[in-house]
Design brief:
Layout lengths: L7 E4 L2 H11 L8 H23 L12 E6 L4 E6 L6 H8 L7 H10 L4 H8 L10 E9 L7 E6 L4 E7 L6 E8 L9 H11 L7 E3 L2 E2 L16 H12 L5 E9 L5 E8 L15 E5 L2 E7 L11 E6 L15 H24 L1 H15 L9 H7 L3 E2 L11 H6 L7 E6 L3 H5 L5 H5 L4 E4 L2 H10 L1 E2 L2 E5 L5 H5 L16 H18 L3 E6 L8 E4 L7 H9 L9 E5 L4 H12 L4 H18 L5 H23 L2
Parallel strand pairs: 2-8, 12-14, 16-17, 16-19, 20-22
Antiparallel strand pairs: 1-6, 2-3, 3-7, 4-5, 4-7, 5-6, 8-9, 10-11, 11-14, 12-13, 15-17, 18-19, 21-22
Bound molecules: adenosine-5'-diphosphate and magnesium ion.
The site of adenosine-5'-diphosphate has 16 residues, from helix 2 and helix 3.
């Protein structure tokens, strides 16, 4: 293999160096996954070759079987992974191995170096590809020959520290790639046959090409998604899921379906027990593996799943797509698109059944994956199913953990009630104190509690459930509520106002309006408050206060709308204010209290921009009241 070709030295790119540095020094406990990564690369290379074969591309060494071989030398501490796949040209070696082309790798490396303690989790779950070999190798030699006619073989050598060497070699090397690993002293276990065998069984059992050690085939090579459901044991599903997802836990749900009409396909899908979304890193890393008659066409195809179902892992295999279909034209293929929409309905129907037959399991699913699932509000084609799958906390729930559906809500809705009500807030405690809810308590009307900002988008896009409009408690039309009967919750008794007081009360409202001026649209008597003194409401433009807040946060141009301040005449403070007003309609105390009530209401909505002025006013009032307190107490 000695040649006269020059050896050329190249430096690794900065991000590769960083990654290598982390890997070489990592105390990662499952270093064995390097073999999973190399075998998966070999399998990818074989898949690509098979694809070219199916397309009828001319290639070298046509007679070579498509397979992976593991060769080890116990004495020399050398391990070799060999495949007969597409191989690489010199240029490909430089661009594929010398750089990390994967999108988001930079962030990934950053995450790895920041979260040292989490490194195990991260390396295991996502895999770090070829470079993981340097966790166990002191030197790696790649010999590879591309499938193209007249291609030259190439040798790549590196100790994984700073640079690598490339030489073109002229000898009759066969098509494919050989990775020769010179193991570090502390990695000698990887030349023991039983060890290699157990690693392959654990991580690479479902690779669709045979993997040999010596002459023995180690992996099962079964396309279990094409087998009838009844012939597959639960353990096989679990094993396949672990292989597919790199997870160590069992899946939460397994969906195995064979569809025959109008289009034939098999689906084996899994819902993970826990969400993969850690730090929302790698949002783009999802998709289903697409096979055509057991031949892998594309790994992690994203068009088979809408993003809101991106937590689903699995495989789709169809008889009805052509084997030589190119990945680029998939999206335009009618059959493919029909499969994709059928996959979505399969998943939604499965979840729908689950929600009906096993509520607890469904809630478990919702708590884990609901945050992503909710994003499906824009899937209009599946709107009806989607809506049934939503869950919310509500005023009729015993605590924050209980969740209900729209169906639950409407099954116990009052006969005369034509709307579904909701309120937004950061938590149940925050919501419970909101004065807007008082009339709903009084009328014993159920209100959905929305804690996730996304819920607002969900609600505002669905608008209606069956014939019921969905309304925010602060935009609701009170006239509709007034028609509904009250509960018998005992109310605090207040005398009704005399005719004279009635007049003063309406002058007081005008007075407060003039004090608040442009800040409010109007000041009116409240029909919704039961206990509290005041609250702010919007005229019904369909958008709740919290929705406006969200839009403002995302810098959308929301018109600053003026609110109506409502005062509750059956409240002690308001009654006292009326007395003060009657005695002296220009008393400064009225101004202070009005401004305070207005700002407190803003605060409650989460729309107060300047808390300092509010605090200053509260302190002034406290100071005054302390004087009065001392006077009353004669101290
Ligand atoms: P990934 O497999 O996610 O692309 P890797 O770091 O594992 O990342 O591999 C980088 C690239 O090197 C691959 O995409 C492929 O182009 C090339 N490569 C690695 N191993 C092989 C192999 N055995 N045969 C052909 N190409 C390979
Ligand atoms: Mg890889």
């Amino acid at each position: 293999m000695i040649t006269n070709q020059p050896k050329i030295k190249y430096e690794f790119k900065a991000e590769v160096k960083k990654l290598l540095d982390i890997l070489v020094h990592s105390l990662y406990t499952s270093r064995e996954i390097f073999l999973r990564e190399l075998i998966s690369n070999a399998s990818d290379a074989l898949d690509k070759l098979r694809f070219e074969l199916n397309r009828g591309t001319e290639l070298i060494d046509k007679e070579l079987p498509l397979e992976i071989r593991i060769i080890y030398d116990e004495k020399k501490k050398i391990l070799i992974v060999l495949d007969t796949g597409i191989g690489m040209t010199k240029e490909e070696v430089i661009s594929n191995i010398g750089t990390i082309a994967k999108s988001g790798t930079e962030e990934f490396v950053k995450l790895l170096s920041e979260a040292k303690s989490e490194a195990n989790n991260i390396i295991g779950k996502f895999g770090v590809g070829f470079y993981s070999v340097f966790m166990v190798a002191k030197e790696v030699i790649i010999t590879t020959r591309s499938f193209h006619k007249d291609s030259k073989a190439v040798e790549w050598r590196s100790d994984g520290l700073g640079d690598y060497e490339i030489t073109e070699i002229e000898s009759n090397i066969k098509r494919g790639t050989k990775i020769e690993i010179h193991l570090k002293d502390d990695s000698e276990e990887f030349v023991q046959k039983w060890k290699l065998e157990s690693i392959i069984k654990k991580h690479s059992n479902f690779i669709s090409f045979p993997i040999y050690i010596d002459k023995e085939k180690i992996n099962t090579v079964a396309a279990i998604w094409r087998e009838p459901k009844s012939s597959i044991k639960k353990e096989q599903y679990v094993e396949f899921y672990k292989f597919l997802s790199h997870e160590s836990e069992e899946p939460m749900e397994t969906i195995h379906k064979s569809v025959d009409a109008p289009i034939q396909f098999n689906a084996l899908l899994f819902i993970p027990k826990s969400s993969f979304e850690f730090f929302w890193y790698d949002r783009e890393n999802y998709g289903l593996d697409l096979y055509v008659r057991r031949v892998l066409i594309q790994h992690k195809n994203k068009d088979l799943l809408p993003e809101y179902l991106s937590f689903v892992k699995g495989v789709i295999d169809s008889e009805d797509l052509p084997l030589n279909i190119s990945r680029e034209t998939l999206q335009e293929n009618v059959v493919f698109n029909k499969i994709a929409s059928s996959v979505t309905t399969t998943i939604l129907s499965y979840l729908y059944d689950k929600a009906k037959t096993n509520k607890e399991d469904y809630i478990q699913f919702w708590k884990e994956h609901g945050r992503i699932f909710k994003l499906g509000y824009s899937d209009f084609a599946n709107h009806d199913k989607y809506v049934e799958l939503l869950r919310f906390n509500s005023s009729k729930c015993s605590d924050q953990n209980e969740l209900i559906s729209f169906e639950d809500y409407t099954s116990r809705i009052k006969a005369e009630q034509k709307e579904i009500y909701f309120i937004s807030g950061s938590s149940r405690d925050a919501v419970l104190n909101d004065p807007h809810l008082e009339i709903f308590k009084k009328k014993d009307l159920e209100v959905l509690y929305l804690y996730d900002p996304v819920d607002e988008f969900v609600i505002s896009s669905i608008r209606k459930y069956k014939e019921y409009e969905i309304k925010s408690v602060d935009t609701v039309d009170l006239k509709k509520l007034e028609k509904l009967s009250d509960t018998d919750i005992p109310k605090k008794e207040f005398d009704s106002l005399s005719d004279d007081d009635e007049k003063h009360f309406s002058s007081l409202l005008s007075k407060i309006k003039s004090i608040l001026g442009e800040k409010v649209k109007d000041v009116v008597e409240s029909n919704r408050l039961v206990d509290s003194a005041a609250c702010l409401v919007s005229e019904d433009d369909g958008m709740s206060a919290s929705m406006k807040k969200i839009l403002k946060m995302t810098n959308q141009n929301v018109e600053k709308d003026k609110k109506i301040l409502e005062l509750n005449r059956n409240n002690k403070l308001v009654r006292n204010l009326l007395k003060v007003f009657k005695a002296d309609s220009n008393d400064d105390y009225i101004k202070k209290v009005s401004e305070q009530l207005y700002e407190s209401s803003l605060l409650q909505e989460g729309n107060l921009e300047d808390p300092h002025s509010l605090v200053k006013k509260i302190n002034e009032l406290l100071e005054q009241s302390s004087d009065w307190y001392c006077t009353v107490k004669k101290i």
